[in-house]
Write a structure and sequence with these properties.
The chain is α/β, with parallel strands linked by helices and 581 residues long. The chain is built from 18 helices and 29 strands. The chain has a 9-stranded mixed beta sheet with strand order 3-2-14-13-15-16-17-18-19, sandwiched between helices. It has an 8-stranded mixed beta sheet with strand order 10-9-6-4-5-11-12-22, sandwiched between helices. A hairpin with a 2-residue loop joins strand 7 (141-142) and strand 8. The longest helix has 17 residues, at 63-79.
Length: 581
């Protein structure tokens, strides 16, 4: 079996080798602000300007109203008995209350734990206990089910409470003492969101404002759980300093300013929504616009058009669905877009070209990063031509070092593939209560191992070759799904492609392609293979092809390849427990 990473380049004299390393010291100094301080500054600069527009709630907040509302909730949380450093979970879909809670937790010196709305009771139980959450703020409906029903399943003590505003003791979640529900209805043992806010006394609101100087930039403010595609999810801890400075660079590169109107349809529980969108809009005075609680393509396009949005951020799959919506209703085509930002998953050059053609933005910015890097490490520059965005993940982020290494952690030559490592100001503080995993991910010298196969160019731009765990070894040859997925996406009748590896007695592994067609009646397996002939080497053409209407996804829009692989193995009649765990 071939090694995943290249062997050390001992045969190449270092004096003749340009190592895959880049340091971007930045155009501007870093800021020592906290999230709470950013809200004060935004109020001072743009008090009467619109900070947030939540269309599905028909609610608008100016920067001044946002600060006043946030401080009332922050004071109410302290009155419930929460104290500096306590963890507060936010569990729900996009709303003004989510936005307010996130900033209120920061103003109160709490650590926000972002919980995926689709969590089922077992997943919720794991995350609540993993970081020892003291309180949770939640929607009445999370995913498609009642959050109260899910909570009562793991905290049966709630049903025994005689009042809605009481502390309780949970046997399964000993740390949790408060549940706060965004609802007008009353439930046993559960506080109502508005009641907590209304309970704030002027003295405690004043206390919140005076306490901002005590909260430090290096303090933890966020815990965000990784996707958990290879085992249990891990809680990455991010500081005020890391996410604010990361968001400032982001805003500069995507040309944010106080006239910008930022349409956000990615869930707030994802780093790109909260750590980038919320914070960058606060810093640059832009208006954040929420089309709805979840992503609905047609409603999103209507929002972009009607609200004259200038910037949008989403995943490749979301933009594919937006383009499909425009095909069905071309009269919705927006005319004010300046910047389209895509990240969270590999972006094909074909998709970039289709966005430029159909949405007609000034620029398409490609973002690359991960939760643990706070989140971005590469991003297109505002002056990049579309071709640059189509074939790279952008330029090295400011205040960061990156390098590409071999299997022994030694730098490979520039423009050679290897694993990407990152070091700098936005790297996570570690995984909560998991020193062993932290030490295996971050070296003693501070380098974070991304697990991504990467090529660093001589101009500081980069390309993702694939994920180490996604690599397929066919006939002793490494095959990276992303390359074949990008090629197949150029077919006019294909919307999306996802490829996984499945065991094969002769070749070791074979390629299994899940194809989402534009028109299922036009596309056949033979047509796909004919399209590949003469353009792909024979061993890179998928042996197994299955047409699907969509993919299993996380609430953030990421395709769950683990589930696709299980489905492929079942379809082929292969026992999964003998292949992998």
């Amino acid at each position: 079996m071939q090694s995943v990473l290249p062997a050390p380049h001992n045969s190449t004299p270092f004096t003749k080798m340009v190592p895959s390393y880049w340091h971007n010291p930045g155009q501007a100094p870093q800021t020592p602000h906290t999230l709470g301080r950013l809200l004060d500054i935004a109020d001072d600069r743009w008090g009467d300007r619109e900070a947030l527009l939540s269309l599905h709630e028909d609610r608008r907040l100016t920067f001044r109203e946002a600060r006043e509302t946030v401080d009332k909730l922050a004071a109410g949380l302290l009155q419930l008995g929460l104290k500096t450093g306590d963890r507060i979970g936010v569990w729900g879909h996009n709303s003004s209350q989510w936005y307010i809670t996130y900033l209120a937790a920061a103003r109160a010196g709490l650590i926000t734990v972002k919980l995926t709305p689709e969590y089922e009771p077992s997943e919720l139980l794991y995350t609540l206990n993993k970081v020892e959450i003291q309180a949770i703020v939640c929607d009445e409906i999370c995913g498609s089910r009642s959050s109260v029903e899910k909570l009562t399943h793991i905290i049966p003590e709630l049903s025994a409470c005689q009042d809605s505003d009481v502390e309780f003791q949970s046997s399964q979640v000993p740390s949790l003492t408060r549940v706060i529900l965004i609802s007008d209805r009353k439930f046993p043992g559960i506080c109502r969101f508005q009641d907590v806010m209304d309970s704030a006394t002027p003295q405690n609101v004043d206390r919140i404002r005076k306490s901002q100087i005590m909260i430090q930039p290096d303090d933890a403010c966020d815990i965000i759980f990784t996707s958990g595609t290879t085992g249990k999810s891990k809680g990455a801890i991010l500081s005020h300093h890391s996410i604010i400075n990361n968001a400032i660079v982001y805003g500069r590169r995507v040309c944010l300013n106080e006239e910008s109107r930022y349409c956000l349809f990615t869930q707030f529980s994802h780093t790109s929504a909260s750590c980038l969108a919320i914070i960058s809009c606060l810093y640059y005075g832009a208006t954040l616009i929420i089309p709805g609680p979840q992503f609905y393509p047609t409603e999103t396009v209507k929002t972009i058009r009607d609200e004259r949005c200038t910037i949008v951020l989403g995943s490749p799959s979301q933009f594919i669905n937006i383009l499909v919506a425009l095909d069905e209703e071309p009269n919705l085509t927006p005319t004010t877009l300046e910047t389209v930002v895509m990240g969270t998953a590999p972006v094909s050059p074909t998709l970039v070209k289709n966005i430029m053609k159909n949405l007609k933005p000034v620029r398409v910015s490609i973002a690359y990063g991960m939760t643990e890097t706070g989140p971005l490490t590469f991003l297109s520059q505002s002056s990049d031509v579309p071709e640059k965005s189509a074939y790279t993940v952008g330029y090295v982020y400011e205040h960061l070092e990156v390098k590409v290494v071999d299997q022994e952690g030694r730098m490979v030559p520039m423009e050679t593939s290897g694993e990407l490592w990152v070091r700098g100001n936005s790297i996570m503080l570690g995984y909560w209560n998991d020193d062993e995993k932290t030490k295996s991910t971050v070296t003693p010298e501070g380098w974070l191992k991304t697990g991504d196969l990467f090529v660093l160019q001589k101009d500081g731009y980069g390309k993702v070759v694939g994920r180490l765990k996604d690599m397929i070894i066919k006939d002793n040859t490494n095959v990276f799904p992303i390359e074949i997925e990008d090629f197949l996406s150029t077919h006019p009748d294909i919307l999306e492609v996802q490829i996984v590896g499945v065991p094969d007695p002769r070749m070791g592994e074979e390629l299994y392609a899940f194809i989402r067609p534009r028109n299922s009646k036009k596309l056949t397996e033979q047509k796909v293979r004919d399209f590949c002939k003469g353009k792909l080497a024979e061993f890179r053409i998928p042996r197994h092809i299955e047409f699907v209407s969509d993919y299993p996804r996380t609430v953030l829009g990421k395709v769950q390849k683990m589930i696709l692989k299980e489905r492929a193995l079942q379809e082929l009649g292969i026992q999964t427990d003998t292949i992998w765990t």
